[in-house]
């Protein structure tokens, strides 16, 4: 039998089975899932390019594939939003697994744009000095070579580069896009793993300070695995409580939300287990713990400074921005769609988490001497401010968090891109003492960094101010005035260390052996420029984007 | 008792094949004794003496283990599909082809990067 005959007989026997014996097949709306499918498909094409293209042409091919794929995914998101899937036609696709609604599309669009800017910083090859006649990026020549070994020297001399970072970035983006759209707990868990595993790998691939980078990756992996275990155990307990992993459903086929608010028709066996609130409380708490870990909220923040410091700086920027967007999206959906009936139980806990996150993030940042660790603690403090918006449990709470995430993520990407520019003989000069007098030496770079720091601090006319104002306003309207007061105090503490860095850059003498500022290619320049533009546009004229976030802020149930 | 007859027959066939193989091998196989034949089987690693701290293992073992996991996961999905191939219909066939295709991309990468060559 020839190959075509085999395929033909497979097809006919697959189609010819009597309907009665068929297992009902799922109905999947491919068009509505197209943004995610495009990104994952592009990642697969990237792996194929990695396998079959000669080494010389891989870099440009990967950059092209990544940019085209992300642009296509963004176009698909815009098309879906224009078709009304963000508002009136919002619904739950893929047999209840994935929601296609305003928050999902808004956050997916944000993540894709973040990834596009991050891909530019990944591809930057002008910053490191030319090694043996080859331009090199921020990633290890050969990940498997032992740091400092003859094999590594050989790889560097041969001009190897790890162009696999681009497919890895895309796989991570694919997972992050499903994460805030996941409408059942298993999809949530699978997408968490899909975006976490590439991130662990990317963290370990720094070209300079490789041991620190690998240490960061191992720490991130172990703590991430631990938090995944918490999440999974929580999912199991919630399943034990509700008899389903679906977020929402109908009275006859209830999701967890219906079981909690009592509108579900339960079988007697299930009615017995839903009487047990312990399963619900412990399970819900464990799932929220898993998400708070990814968000980097205190007391689950210990990994953040070490990982942010050790990872290659472009990866740190991507991780700090995109992971936070994805994880806050998932947290919002979980708290607003699944557990709104439990809000009198989780709100006090989240109050506490938000307060300690804001306060500890701001206070510990004051003592930092490394600019990457400083930005890590600043991201912890920002997670606290975002949690203040989450606690509001109101439409303005959702839209303010969506807006804040956009403002925060592009500023963060720009900030870490500036960090890659300030270098000395050992690579990036991240110690803050080396940044002294930077404003005298290269006023433009220092001024741009100052803009980002002012935005982090929440000074008016920057994106950070508009975001903080929206979040605190939503929290105050929901009656969380004490939280807002503490938030404002924490912002003031945080502003102290941001402004201290600015003062150090502009008003102290440059050190004689200070770092130099590398001239970037248009790739990093555009990443920084996008950060500045977003900071100023969202700061000066935030209304259009606040309206957009407001329109997108309704979850489908 | 009738229900268990096939199991007994299967057991008999298995035992018969094992005994047949062992006897045939000892009768027909060449016998060349050397040091390696006396050592414990350890997947190609010298079992003794171990270097201090366990020593470093070549990355080849790790690659082989990873490849095994990929094949293993593929089988986990292929096997139930093969059992109820008819009932899943055309949808199942198309989805399975897509799945095998994507897994194949990983193999193509491993093959082109020399992950399938031992030396």
Give the helices and strands of chain A as they follow along the chain: HHHEEHHHHHHHHHHHHHEEHHHHEHH
Strand content of chain B: under 5%
Structural category of chain B is mainly alpha
Q: What proportion of the residues of chain A is helical, as a percent range?
A: 55-70%
Q: Would you count the extended β strands of chain A for me?
A: 5
Q: What is the mean pLDDT of chain A?
A: 91
Q: Can you list the strand order of the major beta sheet of chain A?
A: 4-3-5
List the helices and strands and how they pair.
The complex is a heterodimer of chains A (557) and B (119).
Chain A lengths: L2 H14 L17 H19 L2 H28 L8 E3 L4 E3 L1 H21 L27 H8 L7 H14 L6 H19 L6 H33 L13 H6 L6 H7 L2 H19 L7 H8 L2 H26 L4 H24 L4 H21 L3 H27 E3 L2 E2 L9 H4 L1 H15 L5 H15 L3 H27 L8 E2 L4 H19 L2 H9 L6
Antiparallel strand pairs in A: 1-2, 3-4, 3-5
Chain B lengths: L4 H24 L30 H25 L1 H28 L7
Helix pairs in contact in B: 2-3
Describe the structure.
The complex is a heterodimer of chains A (557) and B (119). Chain A is mainly α. Chain A has one domain (27-551). In chain A, 69% of the residues lie in helices and 2% in strands. Chain A is built from 22 helices and 5 strands. In chain A, strand 3 and strand 4 form a beta hairpin. The longest helix of chain A is centred in the middle third of the chain and has 33 residues, at 210-242. The mean pLDDT of chain A is 91. Chain B has 119 residues and is mainly α. Chain B has a domain at 56-119: Methane Monooxygenase Hydroxylase, Chain G, domain 1, CATH 1.20.58. Chain B contains 3 helices and no strands. In chain B, helix 2 (59-83) packs antiparallel against helix 3. The longest helix of chain B is centred in the last third of the chain and has 28 residues, at 85-112. The radius of gyration of chain B is 22 Å and the shape is flat. The model of chain B has no long low-confidence stretch (mean pLDDT 84). Classes of the chains: A mainly alpha (557), B mainly alpha (119). The A-B interface holds A 10-11, 13-15, 17, 21-23, 25-26, 44, 47-48, 50-52, 144 and B 59, 84-93, 102, 105-106, 108-109, 111-113. Chain B: It is a multi-pass membrane protein. Chain B: It catalyses: a quinone + NADH + 5 H(+)(in) = a quinol + NAD(+) + 4 H(+)(out).
């Amino acid at each position: 039998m020839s190959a075509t005959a085999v395929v033909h007989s497979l097809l006919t026997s697959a189609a010819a089975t009597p309907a009665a014996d068929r297992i009902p097949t799922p109905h999947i709306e491919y068009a509505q899932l197209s943004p995610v499918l495009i990104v994952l498909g592009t990642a697969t094409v990237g792996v194929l390019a990695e396998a079959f293209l000669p080494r010389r042409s891989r870099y440009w091919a990967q950059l092209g594939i990544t940019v085209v794929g992300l642009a296509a995914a963004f176009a698909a998101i815009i098309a879906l939003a224009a078709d009304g899937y963000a508002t009136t036609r919002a619904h739950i696709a893929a047999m209840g697994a994935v929601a296609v609604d305003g928050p999902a599309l808004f956050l997916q669009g944000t993540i894709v744009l973040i990834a596009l800017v991050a891909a530019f910083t990944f591809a930057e090859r002008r910053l490191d000095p030319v090694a043996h006649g080859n331009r090199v990026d921020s990633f290890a020549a050969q990940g498997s070579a032992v740091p400092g070994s003859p094999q590594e020297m050989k790889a560097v001399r041969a001009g190897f580069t790890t162009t696999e970072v681009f497919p890895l970035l895309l796989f991570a983006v694919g997972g992050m896009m499903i994460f805030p759209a996941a409408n059942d707990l298993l999809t949530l868990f699978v997408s968490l793993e899909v975006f976490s595993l590439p991130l662990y790998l990317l963290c370990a691939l720094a070209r300079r300070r490789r041991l620190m980078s690998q240490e960061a990756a191992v720490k991130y992996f172990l703590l991430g695995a631990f938090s995944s275990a918490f999440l999974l155990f929580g999912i199991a307990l919630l399943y034990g409580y509700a008899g389903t992993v679906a977020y929402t459903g109908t009275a006859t086929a209830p999701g967890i939300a219906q079981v909690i608010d009592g509108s579900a028709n339960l079988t007697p066996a299930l009615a017995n287990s839903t009487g047990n609130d312990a399963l619900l409380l412990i399970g819900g708490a464990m799932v929220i713990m898993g998400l708070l870990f990814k968000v980097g909220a205190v007391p689950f923040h210990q990994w953040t400074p070490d990982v942010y410091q050790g990872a290659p700086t472009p990866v740190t920027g991507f991780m700090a921005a995109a992971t936070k967007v994805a994880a806050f999206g998932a947290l919002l959906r979980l708290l607003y769609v699944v557990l709104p009936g439990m809000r009198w139980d989780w709100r006090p806990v989240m109050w506490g988490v938000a307060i300690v996150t804001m306060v500890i993030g701001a206070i510990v940042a004051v003592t930092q001497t490394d600019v990457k660790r400083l930005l890590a603690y600043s991201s912890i403090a920002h997670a606290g401010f975002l949690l203040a918006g989450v606690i509001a449990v109101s439409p303005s709470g959702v839209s303010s968090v969506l807006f804040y995430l956009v403002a925060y993520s592009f500023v963060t990407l720009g900030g870490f891109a500036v960090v890659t520019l300030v270098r000395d003989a050992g690579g990036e000069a991240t110690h803050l003492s080396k940044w002294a007098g930077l404003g005298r030496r290269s006023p433009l770079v220092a001024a741009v960094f100052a803009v980002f720091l002012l935005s982090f601090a929440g000074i008016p006319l920057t994106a950070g101010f508009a975001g903080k104002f929206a979040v605190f306003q939503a929290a105050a309207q929901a009656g969380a005035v004490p939280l807002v007061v503490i938030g404002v105090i924490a912002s003031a503490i945080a502003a102290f260390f941001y402004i201290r860095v600015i003062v150090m850059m502009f008003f102290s003498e440059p050190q004689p052996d200070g770092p130099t500022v590398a001239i970037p290619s248009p790739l990093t320049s555009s990443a920084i420029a996008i950060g500045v533009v977003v900071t100023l546009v969202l700061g000066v004229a935030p209304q259009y984007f606040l309206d957009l976030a407001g329109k997108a802020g309704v979850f489908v149930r | 008792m009738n229900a268990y007859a096939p199991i007994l027959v299967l057991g008999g066939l298995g035992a018969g094949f094992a005994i047949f193989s062992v006897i045939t091998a000892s009768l027909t196989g060449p016998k060349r004794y050397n040091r390696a034949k006396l050592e414990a089987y350890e997947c190609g690693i010298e079992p003794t003496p171990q270097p201090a701290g366990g020593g470093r293992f070549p990355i080849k073992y790790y690659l082989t283990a990873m490849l095994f996991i990929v094949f293993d996961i593929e089988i986990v999905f292929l096997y139930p599909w093969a059992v109820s191939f008819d009932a899943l219909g055309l949808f199942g066939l198309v989805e399975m082809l897509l799945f095998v295709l994507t897994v194949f991309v990983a193999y193509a990468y491993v093959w082109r990067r020399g992950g399938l060559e031992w030396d």
